[in-house]
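Researcher: Last one for today. Full complex below.
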Amino acid sequence: MTATGASAAPLRRGQSRLRRIESRQALGFISPALAGLTVFTIAPVILSIVMSLYDWPAWGDRTFVGGGNYVDLFTRHPDFWPSLRNSAIFTLLFVPMNLAVSLTLALLLSPRIKGRAVFRVLFFIPVVTPMVANVLVWKMLLQPNGLFNGLSTSMFGIELPSFLSHPQWAMVMVVVMSVWQGMGYNMLIFCAALEQLPEPVLEAARIDGAKGWRMFSRITLPLLSPAIFFTTVMTMITSMQVFAQPQLLTGGGPGNATIPIVMFIYDQAFTFQQMGLAAAAAWILFAIIIGLTALQFSAQKRWVHYEV
Amino acid sequence: MKITRSLAAMTAAGAALALGACGTQSGSGSGSDGDGDDTGSGASITWDMWAGSESDIEALEAQLAIAQEENPDLDISLQHAPWNDYFTKLTTNLASGNVACVTSMNGQRLSGYHEAFMPLGEEELATAGIDPADFTEGSLDIMSYDGELYGIPYDVAAMLVYYNKDMFADAGVPEPAAGWTFEDFDAALDGLGTDGTAFGMGMGEFQWMALPIAHAGVQPVDESGALDLTNPAFLEASEWYASIAADGHGSLPPSASDTGWGEQEYQAGNVAMAVDGTWNASSYLNNEAGFAAGMVDIPSVDGERLGLVLGSGYGISADCENPEAALQVLGSLVGEAAQDQIASSGRSYPARISSQPLYFESLDEGVQDEVQAAFEAVFTGLEGQRSTDDWAQVNESIQPNLVTVYTGQSTMTDVLEQTQSQFGD
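Model: Here's the assembly. Have a good evening.
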C-alpha cells in the first residue's frame, strides 16, 4: 500500500482515531479481569499491609501498633522462630531430595523404553490425588500399628519408632511423604527437557567418546541447567509455603516440631484470631521468598547455560 | 460501546449471582440475610446453627417448623454450616457485622464470643417465655460468662467414662459402677494390663482434662476467671493422668493431628476405656465394632466428684435489630415442643427437664435403664465450667504438646507451665 504526502496526515488522524476506539474496546474487554484483579488481589494485598500495622482482632476494636506486630514476632512469640526454622529445614531437605528423585526418574524413563508413558502416569498420580487421601494412606503406613511397623516386627522382629510422634522423625516423614507426593511434577518437566536436548551436541559428544557418568555430568546436566534452575526456584517457593502435609500428617506436632511458617500464619489468623500478627508474619514470609528467589536469579549466571 | 455496556452489565449480574449463592440457607424464610430489618409482625429472623449431614439438617428443619408454627407472624429461616467450619464462618460474619439474630453457641467457646451476644436479663427471659426453673440445675451456667447470661441451653452434657464390657470380661476385671473412686479406676487399669489397650489417651479439651479436674477437685481456671494451669493440685493430677501412658496402660496417639484419639480407639474396639461426653452415648451403644458398650460417671476422690456441666445453646446477637422477635424464636427453639423433638430423636440430651425422659425412651429397651442410671449419676453435683477469654487458644496450644507428654519427651508440668506463662496474666 502506498500513500501520497497529501493524504498522509488524514490517514494518521484516521489511524489514531481507530486506535483510540480499539483501545477503548480492549479496555472494555479486559475490565472484568481488571476488576477481579483489583478486588481479589490488589485490594487484599494493600489491606494486609495495613492489617500488619494494627492490633487487628477478627472483630472488635482495632488499634494502630506500627511495627509492634513485627517486633512481637521476632522477640516474644514462642512459636515464630520454631516455625521459621521448620520451614527452613523442610526446604533444605525437600528441594534437593525432590530434584534428585525427579531427575533420576526422568533419566530412567528418558530412553525409549516400552510403556514409559504408563510409568509417567503412575508417578504423576500422587500429584493429582487429593492431599487428604495421600496423607491418610501415609498415616496408615507410618503409625505404630501401621504397615511399616507391622512388616518390620513380623519379618525382622524390630520395633520401629513412632514416626509421627517423634520430633525428628516427624519432620523426616513430612519431607519423605512430600517428596513422594511431588516428584511427578518435576519429573515431567525434566522428561520434557530431556527430549528437547540438542541432538547434534549429544552426537558430537558421543563421537568424542563421552559416555556414562562423564556424558551425564559434562553434557546432559549443563544442557538441563535451565530446567533445573526453573524447578529449583519453583520448588523452593512451594516448599516455603508448605502447609497441608504437616497440618494433616502431624498437626504441626509433636509440640511445635513440624509447624511451618504458613501453618503458624493460619493458626494466628483463624484459630487465635490475631489477624494483624498473621499479616505481619505473611509479609515476613513474602520478604524471605523474594530474597531467596532474587539470590537464585543472581547466582544463575554461574551455572545456568541457556546458549547451546 | 453498546457491547461494552452490556458486557459490564452481564458481568455485574453474574458477580451478584455468584456472591449471592455463597451462603447455605434453607427453611421457610424469604432468604433475606438482613434479619431483624422489619419490626413486629412479618419480621424475618435468621437462625444460625451447625449441621454436618442431611439427617442433621432434617432434624433442624423439624425444629424450625415448630418455631414457625408457634410464631406464625414471623418469617424464620435457617442458616447452617458443618461443625468444623461453623466457628470460622461465625468469626467471618462477626468481622463483617453480619451475624444471625439467633446464633447457636457451644458453651466451652462462649468466653471468646460473649461480646457478640446480648445479655439476657429477667425482662428478656419473660419476653421469650422462659422460666429458668424448667432447665437442668446449673445448665444456665453453660451459656453464662462472668455472671451474665448470654443464651439458653438446648442440651446439656457431661463427661463419662465409657468402657468395653467384652474387654473387661475377657480380662476378668469387674465392671465399674456408679460412684466408683480413682482407686477403683487404677485397679481396673492394672487388671486390664500394660499392653496399651486399657485406656485411650485423650487429646481433646475435656477428653483429657475431665479426669485431672475430678482427681484434683479444682478447675484449671480459678474463681476470679484467671488461668490456673499450674495450680499444684491440678499439676499433680495431670501428672497422674500422664502416668497412665507411661505405665503402659494407655493407647498413645501416633500423631498430634489425631485430635480425637482416645474416643476413636474406644469406638474401634481397641481400648477398654475412654473418656467422652454424653453426646456420644447412643453412637457408642450402637458401635460398628460390635462390642457391648457400658458407661459410668467420672471416678470420685473419697466420694467427692468434681464434674462439669457442658452443652450448647442459642443466644441473641448483640446487634440484632429486632431482639423482641428473636427472643420469641429463641423461646420456641428451647420450648417444650422443640425440646421434646430433640429428645425423642435421641440426638442429644435436652436441657429442659420435662423433655429428658423422652431421650431414654428413644434408646433400645435393653440399654434404657443402664443409660438412665449413668446419666442420673453423672448429672448430679455438677458445676459450671469456668473459662478465660482465650480458653480456646489455650487448648489449641496444649493439644500438640500432649503427644510429647504421652511419649515421654516432655512432662505435663513443663507443658502446663509453658502454656500458663504464655496465656496467663
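Confidence is low (pLDDT under 50) at residues 1-6 of chain A. Residues 68-303 of chain A form a domain with the MetI-like fold fold (CATH 1.10.3720.10).
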